[in-house]
Amino acid sequence: MGIIAFYEGNNATQNIVQTVEDTPGQDFRPIHNDEIRSLKLYGVRAGAEIRLFDDPNGAMTDDFCIINVKRAVPEYVVDTFERSYEDDTVIVTFIRNNGLDGKVSRIRIN
Predict the structure, then answer these.
(1) Which residues, including other chains, have CB under 8 Å from residue 49's CB and lie 6 or more apart?
(2) Domains delineated in the chain
(3) Which pLDDT tens digit goes with each residue over 30-69?
(4) Terminal C-alpha separation, the chain
């Protein structure tokens, strides 16, 4: 079972806001609204999809970010949710409205 740790600062710095397992089918509001700016994956399974939304109901009318895990690695940092990129480990897709870092209000994990 992989672990996803959500951080208050960019680059997985400052305090951990919340930690969850990578179990599919999760849909929740973070413990602390509008604080998460980055995350760290710990052995998260290939095929996992993490969606972060500015909208508290998960609507795609505001900022959102989709992180698709391509392969499990011991540790991997997504340092910001405000850029799209792809590497050997993840595909990150960011859809901008007015910014998402520090404004995450809904998280879905599949």
Answers:
(1) 66, 67, 68, 69, 108, 109, 110
(2) 3-109 (2.60.20)
(3) 999 999 999 999 999 999 999 999 999 999 999 999 999 9
(4) 13
